[in-house]
Amino acid sequence: MTLVDDIREYIRCNCCARARHRDLILSNPLLIPLVERWLDEILIKKRLEEASRPLAQHPTYTTPKRTTSRADSAATSSCITTASSAASRATTVETSLSSPSYSCSNGPRASIVTSIPLQLDVCATTLIYASSTITPSTTPFESEPSETQKRYNLRPRAVADSLAQLSRQNKLSSSAEFHAHINEPTSEDTVAWRFCEDLNKRDDKRDFKKGSVYIYSRKSSPGFVKIGWTSKSVDVRLAEWSECGYTPIELFRVTAVPYAQRVETLTHHELIKEWRREQPCKGCWMKKQKQIRHQEWFEVSQERAIQVLSTWAEFFKKANLYELSGSLKFEWRNIVDVMEVNREAITSKGLLEHYEATVVKDTALAKKAAIAKEATIAKEEAIAKEEAVTKEAGQAMSKFSLIRFGL
């Protein structure tokens, strides 16, 4: 009953997971034909193996001699035979497991999917009909079935029902506007990984650029928002998105954001469970003749999207996070490590709170240092004043002595 699901999963696992192509096959119209083809090959092989077991116990089995007509005689004359008797006309049909297809041969050898040789009448011009149906395994293999010959459906009812259910799911998925972007997150899909990743990972150095981040929606997709960034003007970028066949409705924007693309990336990964990828864009197909699936859509409330993006933008504007080389500063790597050890969620809000706590702590330390410095200065001034008084007293005593002794 799980055969269809196993085949589907095997097909899916042959796609690229890192490039996010793996789940595209599940909504592709080619999925069902491919599953049916592999399913029939497996079931045909199984039937042929079952059919060969009783024949393997009787290696000298031959089909009964039948009365041939003039048409049969013509077919017989095209066969290559070396024996002169009916018994000697029975020859071995070699089989092969390497080929899943079936073909007619004018010679004494015809390829079928089984590993056990069968003794068949060569004059019958043996042909196995390969499709989703085949003659019952309890009857001897005969020549190519005629149109009126009844064929046996290899698919058990449970398998057929499972295939029908998969077909319905495929149709629903194909007609859906959005699909989950990341079904199987890896360690590289976490906020912590993306936050600690060097900015110079790209050759174009786009993560170093300052820009704007924005959020917009559209009337045709209620409940979905698009989150992006641009080094251009937000108005220009929204005008470009309108070429996809809809009017963007701007919800939020922040300008002059340092490392704007990194802010966008971190927002996307914080909302990874709500991250969606839309069907191929019709506007891009009309304009560029390319199937482009825009993947910056999120099935999330507008309030939640604005809260996450605005917090990341505020955090990056306030904190000096990265070195000139593009690597994250050592103190922030330590903060991330401590948060992970304490099982704290690495989010924009959590990191901003750590930054603010650090600022408060630094402010308190600075205030304490200022008070200590003021106390030190006051003490030094008191000592200096005392020394001045002592010096004046000494000078006065010296003058008094001179006057007393008439010097």
Spatial order of the strands in the main sheet? 5-9-10-7-6-8
Strand residues, percent: 5-15%
Gap between N and C termini: 127 Å
**pLDDT averaged over residues:** 76
Order of helices and strands: HHHEEEEHEHEEHEHEHEHHH
Q: What low-confidence regions span 5 or more consecutive residues with pLDDT below 50? A: 67-151
Dominant shape: elongated
The figure for the number of domains is: 3
Radius of gyration: 41 Å
Biggest sheet record: 6 strands, antiparallel
Tally of DSSP β-strands = 10
Specify the helix fraction band.
Answer: 40-55%
Structural class: alpha+beta
Structure description:
- It contains eleven helices and ten strands.
- Mean pLDDT is 76; it is low at 67-151.
- The strands form three sheets. It has a six-stranded antiparallel β-sheet with strand order 5-9-10-7-6-8, with helices on both faces. It has a two-stranded antiparallel sheet with strand order 1-2.
- It has three domains: 3-157, no CATH class; 181-327, no CATH class; 347-407.
- With 407 residues, the chain is an alpha+beta fold.
